Amino acid sequence: MIQAICDIATTFATLLLAAIAIWQEQIVNFLNPSKAVIEKANFDGQLEGTQTEPSYTYHIKARCLTRFRSLRGCRIVFREVVRKLDAGNEIRSNYPVWRQLPWAPSERTEFRVTISSEQEADAGIYYGNEDVYVIPCYVQGGVFDSRVQRGERATVRLHLMADNMIHDITALLVIDMRGVPKTKPKLEIQNG
Q1: Where are the domains of the chain?
Q2: What is the dihedral of CA 57, 63, 69, 70, to 10 degrees?
Q3: Nearest to residue 169, comparing CAs of 24, 84, 66?
Q4: CA 101, CA 124: separation in Å to the nearest integer?
């Protein structure tokens, strides 16, 4: 009788240890979920071009809020851009695949990054001579209208995804190109 109880306890403990070894990351995420936020980093526009051909770059940042844990395989993606025109019309651009914002600097950063504290991503470029704001993304197939013209107010629903997060972190990036021509756009981020 005692031998049977010991055998059952040993079998149960072995199965429990095997389950913990296999699903360790999921168990840790359930008990201590990863937390993050999308914040503004540079919404004043950093001059990249020249005085005769000005272009201004804008950045957002992903910040990890969980102590002693990194966000692995992070990316900031979007699937829809909603444009509101001065006339009051609304244009929705839905994409069948996620579009990913490039991490900064885009020349030296992988598509997926590990964030221990924070990492910046490109939020867009305003070209002064053309008076247009361009939403950047890694090259992907399909048609994508990345330009926000003068007189438009575009809203982009961003999703911060990571391999070790249970739920996406969402935020709205608002690009306001209404107003006086040849002036920089107004950007804001709304978490939620």
Answers
A1: 1-31, 33-191
A2: -20
A3: 66
A4: 9
CB 36, CB 65: distance < 8 Å: yes
Average pLDDT over the chain, rounded to an integer: 86
pTM of the model: 0.80
Q: How far apart are CA 183 and CA 139, in angstroms?
A: 28
pLDDT digits (tens, 9 = 90+) for 116-169: 899 999 999 999 899 999 999 887 767 778 889 999 999 999 999 998 887 888
Q: Using omega within 30 degrees of 0 as the cis cutoff, is the peptide bond preceding 105 cis? A: yes
The burial of 11, by beta-carbon neighbours within 10 Å (0-12 exposed, 13-18 middle, 19 or more buried), is given as: exposed
Of 100, 104, 146, nearest to 121 by C-alpha is 104
- Which residue's structure tokens are 């972190």? 169
Token reading at 69: 């844990």
**Top-confidence range, 90-94, 99-103, 162-166:** 99-103
